[in-house]
């Protein structure tokens, strides 16, 4: 019997709550809507509270209830994980009620909403960049606030997320064997994040990219790339000594120096063959020139003979035949 009575009482309570919510949603009574909204807020029923607070801005505009409605609505959206909307509402509260004692709190939660809305590193990071800006703005506006103490840590965390995203994007080039692009991309990461904690890993991948690019290089660029890769390996070993990266750097440096010796021998052989080839070409060109000169001389002689013959023929045609002569007897 007691069980049925308990169930009946629970049903009555739930029905009354539902009825009250329905009445508040249909009511035009500001006080009643505000009362039910605040009750829902106190019970952490965020969606119900928000539905009622959304009906109140025009009803409470210009009254003492307006700040509470905006502030509670922003909090409800924050707890309901509507971070972008909550951030805008908290920011609007700061602007609309500059004399309210909760102004600093609202400014803090506005920045915190951007922080909470930051996505995983492999997703779009526009929220992360905005969060860093908003958190830094809070520190600038409230440098002595107790809330500022943990903001620097949040900014560092968000900054690392941006660093790691850039790192992973650059790493994709290395995985695809695009070593030149990988080197450039990682150099950009170091330029954009000079204080990055990922510097040793970045040095390591740049060094390996330069090594792969050098040993697999075309002949004309190989010496330059071997020198650059060896210099970079030496730099890594110097800047981060006594690490696994330094050990790798020393190993690669040794391999690169051996490769430079082999390539120097290859260069000597190539230059030798090049000189032999050039000599053959030069000799062939000389013979060809000699043949051309002989042909020109022969052609000149033939032309001179033809000209002489033409001159003789012309002279013969233009000279009259000699007249007949008779001898007379005396």
Automatic annotation (TrEMBL):
Annotated Basic and acidic residues bias: 305-315
Keyword Membrane attributed: yes
Region (Disordered): 289-330
Organism: Epilithonimonas arachidiradicis
Keyword entries, A-Z: Cell outer membrane, Membrane, Signal
InterPro entries: BamD, BamD-like, TPR-like_helical_dom_sf
Keyword Membrane listed: yes
One Pfam family in the UniProt entry: YfiO
Domain Outer membrane lipoprotein BamD-like: 34-217
Protein name: Beta-barrel assembly machine subunit BamD
NCBIfam families xref list: OM_YfiO
